[in-house]
Amino acid sequence: MTVLKGNGVFGGIAFGKLSFYKREDEEIKLKKIKDAEAEVKRYEAAKNQAINELEELYESASEKVGEEEAMIFKIHQMMLDDVDYCESIINIIKSENANAEYAVWVTARNFSSMFSDMDDSYMKERATDVMDVSKRLIKIICESDENVHSYSEPCIVGADDLTPSETVQFNEDTVKAFVTAYGSTNSHTAILARTMNIPAVVGIGNGLKKEFDGCEIIVDGYSGTVYVLPDVTTIERLKKKQELCEYENKQLQSLKGIESVTKDGQKVNLYANIGSLSDLKMVLQNGAEGIGLFRSEFLYLKRHSYPTEDEQFDAYKKVIEKMEGKRVIIRTLDIGADKKVKYFNLPQEENPAMGYRAIRICLDRTEVFKTQLRAIYRASKYGKVSIMFPMIISVDEVLKIKDIINEVKKELDFSNIEYSDDVEIGIMIETPAAVMISNELAKEVDFFSIGTNDLTQYTLAVDRQNNKINSMYDPNHKAILRMIKIAADNAHKNGIWIGICGELAADDSLTETFLSIGIDELSMSAPFILNIKKKVLNADVSKIKEKVLSQL
Amino acid sequence: MIEFTYKIKDENGIHARPAGLLVGEAKKFQSNIKITNIVNEKSADAKGLFGLMGLCVKKDNEIKVSVEGEDENEAAETIKDFLEENF
Q1: Facing A75 at nearest CB: one of B12, B17, B47
Q2: Whose C-alpha in A160, A394, A404, B63 is 20 to 30 A from the C-alpha of A124?
Q3: CB-neighbour burial class of residue A39 (10 A; exposed 0-12, middle 13-18, buried 19+)
Q4: Cβ–Cβ of B51/A126 closer than 8 Å?
């Protein structure tokens, strides 16, 4: 048995045969050509084809692993289209009468060594990208279709390092793990392993020898260990470890379809928070019963002008339709403080957390607000939609919001545009003021949702972004829990429901407390949902309630 | 010609993905847009990804942006906004 150590980038244990990824012979020879112009044309045609291929890869990867990770193929496109890169290739063809593949090869080596010489681990990784796009180009020029390594038999893929266009060809059902000699936890292999949900050990070094090809191995992604030709005791030990881990995961996965009700029959809705359309995949995978916080800011960020009503409508409609009638709570624009958008032209402020932000901007710039509301109402007929408003401190604000909503509805009626007439209106409870007047606020709205992050910051007077007082930022502080209870009691007294949509909702040490307080909905990042569901299913509120509440 | 300097606030400096987006912005204009890393005095055309990445711009480095051409006013404004939002 040989034991190899590397960096584990994703938990999990896999058993299987090691199969080294085989590439074609990499040395490319110079051949003198006669017609340089024709050779340049040959190169340009190949370049266009490569860009098209990358577009396809981008689209397929967007679906498989999300837009964020797929972005690498867009970067590859830009590399192929880079002025300096193209110029270098054409120069070599013309000045040396070189064949196109040779010109690409020399250029690729120059550019990749520029990156590998940098003293920055991230930039060093980019050398692999340059070689990856260049090989794609060379392959097309040579018209030799590389055998696609789809790995139809179950196996563990070994390699020096894997490039994004190589990993994306792998069959997700049969590749059980990755092991690589190089690459760091930043590498694409690592990122893809994480998104494909399989274990990987990277950066093993020279110990990962080619002669291990075909050997039985075990990959332990938790400890970053690879066992080649493992002995019986090791196999037994890791099988047990694998069983235990799989059991835990399966147990959680098996909870997916089960309704989240406590042993004594108390129902709590477990919803997901989302910040962009690409988060939807995780929402569905983890069986969220709805969306408790749809942060609409992403529609406004990273752009130079306000999003149009139609752009917003399309985004809301997409989410609402995907949720198939489950509740989707859209929070209106929460910009200002730490979230800055240039075209809003917001003034510099001494104390932005307490400044011109969120609903304060919306009630001041009503045109921006009305555009968003119109888009939401238009989308509302495609499912079950609720709207909530951030940073509320007074009943007066709520009344103003309701006036504006009525104006928007009248305008829609006037233009004969359909919308749902049972859109619930709710507010975020994230200021101490809102907690103190929650009895009055509850009479004006359909639901409350507690934003624990801001509520903690405002209640404790501790700036979330000040590292010096980081240890004082304690969302489990009794003051916060009592505030939650006050708001919940006032909500229920007035016959409305109350949820929590801050980070605290995912804290499983508080689930029983929230259930005892009678919270009706918990909304969190999707990967936490099943763990909280387990807590809920095992809770018996009638037995613990009295004790829990007496400690508050 | 319009020139201005900008101090990089992003933890990662000018990295591949945002650099790619910057190239996209720069290509919208006819003007020549040159970016110089004041720390190591390397310069590159903002319309080329490799050039930009080769500047080795890190957090807290100051860069100089020079824009020259018919649409230089608009280009400078856009690039400035883009830098402030992304870097």
Answers
A1: B17
A2: B63
A3: buried
A4: no
Return the residue in B8, B37, B53, B79 with the most chain A beta carbons within 10 A, the one to mutate for interface testing. Answer: B53
Domain annotation for chain A: domains and CATH numbers: 26-142 (1.10.274.10), 155-253 (3.50.30.10), 255-551 (3.20.20.60)
Q: A356-375 pLDDT, tens per residue? A: 999 999 999 999 999 999 99
Average pLDDT over residues A441-461: 95
- Asked if B15 is an active-site residue, the reply is yes
Confidence of residue A143 (pLDDT cuts 50, 70, 90): low
Residue A130's alpha-carbon distances to A85, A146, A323, A335, B45, in angstroms, are: 10, 19, 40, 39, 19
Q: What is the model's pTM?
A: 0.57
CA contacts within 13 A on the Cβ side of B22: 31
d(CA A4, CA A209): 10
> Is the confidence at residue B36, as pLDDT, over 60?
yes
| Inter-chain residue contact B16 with A82, CB threshold 8 Å | no
Residue A185 pLDDT class (50, 70, 90 cuts): low
- pLDDT value at residue A415: 94
- How many pairs of residues across A and B have Cβ atoms under 8 Å apart? 53
CATH of domain B2-86: 3.30.1340.10
Q: From CA A519, how far away is CA A536, in angstroms rounded?
A: 12
* Mean pLDDT estimate for chain A: 88
Residue A17: its H or E element: strand A13-20
**Which residues have a Cβ under 8 Å from the Cβ of A372 and sit 6 or more positions away?**
A296, A312, A332, A333, A362
Residue A131 reports pLDDT greater than 90: no
Indicate if the pLDDT at residue A339 is higher than 90: no
Pairwise CA distance, residues A179 & A182, whole Å = 9
b/e burial code for range A109-137 (CB count within 10 A of at least 16 → b): eebbebbeebeeeebbbbbbbbbbbbbbb
* Whether ipTM exceeds 0.85: no
**What are the structural domain ranges in chain B?**
2-86
B85 and chain A in contact, CB less than 8 A: yes
